[in-house]
Specification:
With 68 residues, this protein is an all-alpha fold. It has 3 helices and no strands. This is Cytochrome c oxidase copper chaperone. Interacts with COA1. Interacts with the chaperone CHCHD4; this is important for correct folding and the formation of disulfide bonds that stabilize the structure.
C-alpha cells in the first residue's frame, strides 16, 4: 500500500522558501552624513548656494537604491 503523503511534502523545503529580504532602509535614515552637511548649508546659506551638496546627497541616495 502506498502512503497518501510523501515524506518530501511533510518536511519543510529550503528550495521553495523565499529568500529573506533585507530590512528596507527608510529614506530619512539613508546617507546621514551628506544629509547633515546639506541641511546645515541650506539653513546657513540658502538652497541656491548649496547645489553641490544637494547633488552629493542625491547621488548617495541613488547608490542606496532610492529613485531620486
Amino acid at each position: 500500500m502506498m502512503p497518501l503523503v510523501s515524506d518530501k511534502s511533510i518536511a519543510p523545503s529550503l528550495e521553495n522558501k523565499p529568500a529573506e529580504e533585507p530590512k528596507k532602509l527608510k529614506a530619512c535614515c539613508a546617507c546621514p552624513d551628506t544629509k547633515r552637511v546639506r541641511d546645515a548649508c541650506i539653513m546657513e546659506n540658502g538652497e541656491e548656494k548649496c547645489g553641490h551638496l544637494i547633488e552629493a546627497h542625491k547621488e548617495c541616495m541613488r547608490k542606496m537604491g532610492f529613485n531620486i
